[in-house]
Amino acid sequence: MQDIKVQNPIQPLARPNFSIHPVQETQSSSFGQALQQSLEKVNRLQLEADANINDLATGKQTDIHQTMISVEKASVSFELMMQIRNKVISAYDNIMRTQV
User: Fold this and answer.
1) In CA terms, which of 16, 17, 32, 94 is 20 to 30 Å from 23?
2) Cα distance between residue 27 and residue 86, in whole Å
3) Are 74 and 51 in contact (CB under 8 A)?
4) 71 near 53, Cβ under 8 Å?
5) What pLDDT digit, counting tens, does each position of 66-86 carry?
């Protein structure tokens, strides 16, 4: 019988390079800034959808598919924003109901 040979032997894992010094974040943002950026993006998607609808209605654009895609993007982003708002309000209510 022939000996079975392993073609790719298992190599030992390299040791992770942990440093003693913590990694500094190059760009930090607060929750408020992240929320503000998200609201601006939702607003921008809404404005783009409105512009595409107007362009389609006036005949400047004939691609109804692109218009519907932009409208759905705006709709989904708005619904997500509303769900996040509801969760934040629910969490705030739960915190306010906690007895100290």
Assistant:
1) 32
2) 28
3) no
4) yes
5) 999 999 999 999 999 999 999
